[in-house]
Please model this.
Amino acid sequence: MRIVLLGPPGAGKGTQADLLRKRLEVPVLSSGDLLREAVRRGDPVGQEASRYMESGALVPDDVVVGLILERLRSIGPSQSFVLDGFPRTEHQARVLEERLAGEGQAPIDVVVDFQMEEEKVVERLAGRRICGACGTVYHLRTLRPARADRCDRCGGRLEVREDDRPETIRRRLAVYREQTEPLLEHYEQQGKLRRLSGEMEIEAQYQALIDLLHREGLR
Ligand code: AMP
Model:
């Protein structure tokens, strides 16, 4: 099954994608993670992307599409995958559809919209921390590291993501409303859109997501 996770920042897409990866062993393609890796490496793509990311704007379509399509090459034509944070514009969605169809690949089956009130997003993102070395994500209330300020996985220092500062969160929410929300209509018209509350606790949300995917035919 090919799944797209949509929704505002902080609604739990990345956390749930990670659980799907660990528990169902399905590959996850996260555009945000791929971009942050490029930024950490300091290569030209990363250098260009970081200017946009720090301000809360979307990275230009061609940069993100390039990264995702490159990753897609390692995935078999009917293999399952989860897309987290991609597509985020109608253009990205169309390019993805064309690429999958053009290469005889299976299409996206289901798009899950994680719904969350804007005020809750701001509250939730304020508690998010990320490992500066390996990118693992934590939350001070819901996903606590064993040692404060240190990554459980690699011991790296935990940081506030540059774009999780309150002013930048507001910008990201506005960008979401203007550029990503129209995508919901795109997938609604294709009959692929399903809605899920983004406001649940992590395990409850995972269970609701799995129930939804089973109803859509996940075996
Ligand atoms: P995320 O981790 O998904 O919240 O993404 C962090 C940032 O990376 C976003 O605020 C954007 O600047 C950039 N980004 C991630 N995915 C995309 C995408 N599909 N299109 C454009 N920019 C993206």
